[in-house]
Amino acid sequence: MITCFIQYQIDPSKKHQFEEYARNWGQAIPRCGADLIGYFSPHEGSSTLAYGVYSIESLAAYEAYRARLAADPLGKQNYEFAQAEKFILKEDRTFLRLASAPHGANEA
Predict the structure, then answer these.
(1) Structural domain tally of the chain?
(2) Alpha-carbon distance 57 to 95, whole Å?
(3) 107 located within any domain
(4) Cis peptide upstream of residue 102 (ω within 30 degrees of 0)
(5) CB 26 within 8 A of CB 41
(6) Neighbouring C-alpha atoms within 13 Å toward the C-beta of 47
(7) What's the rounded Cα separation, in Å, for the pair 82 and 80?
(8) CB 3.0–4.6 Å: which of 35, 38, 40, 102 could bond 51 by disulfide?
(9) Are 6 and 88 spatial neighbours (Cβ–Cβ below 8 Å)?
(10) Which residues lie below 8 Å from residue 40, measured CB to CB, with a gap of 6+?
């Protein structure tokens, strides 16, 4: 399992548009095959950084998921919404593996 962390730099005056975008992905991403952990918008501190986090089985599964997402009606609409509203200034993806499992294991 890998986890995709998407870091967004957003226009702080368009935070509400980003939150609508996030809610749309909350429907489309699970339907297309990824385990959505969540989308996070600025609250305290930086007013421009936002995140999306989801897990997927492998990079091969990611490629198939991206194709399904691009073909999904809500996915298409959400891509177009982001392009039209221009609330995303920059987007970076990083794929990570969980290194701390199992959590809370007692050592002898």
Answers:
(1) 1
(2) 11
(3) no
(4) yes
(5) no
(6) 6
(7) 5
(8) 40
(9) no
(10) 50, 51, 52, 53
